[in-house]
Amino acid sequence: MSTIPSSHLRLTTVDTETTVRIELLGDLDYDNADLLLEAVTAKLAAHPRLRELHLGCAGLGSVDSTGLSVLLMIRRRTDAAKVLLYLQDRVLALDRLLTITGSLDYLTALPTGAARETSGPGESRADTEEAIPARPTGPDSSA
Length: 143
Hints:
This protein has a 5-stranded mixed sheet with strand order 1-2-3-4-5. Strand 4, helix 2 and strand 5 form a beta-alpha-beta unit. By secondary structure, it is α/β, with parallel strands linked by helices. The protein is built from 5 helices and 5 strands; from the N terminus they run βββαβαβααα. The chain has helices at 33-46, 65-80, 92-100, 104-108, 114-118; strands at 2-4, 9-15, 19-28, 52-63, 84-88.
């Protein structure tokens, strides 16, 4: 376990071979959001067998647009590395920001195909298949 101090954001990490958990305590904003991005980038590089990255958000204070941008960048990097990202213990303010900006589903959903990969043998995969969009059938439909 290691702690990365900052004046407004403290990161505490716990690593295993396939999982990293980073607890955030403080503000994720313009002044220090890069600290989180650097920590995540270093963990992705140092753990080639990493499968899950958990960000513990219970101690998170304010999140500004730079903090949101860093979370979105982390999602892109974890997707590229085939690492599942989990934003855990989200505070209400973070959920509100993610909802207002339309990024809640993107940051909290599993990447396409991840549910299929995690299904074990003999498990029902009906709920992991991609949905087929419904066509309108009412009087105003063009079909």
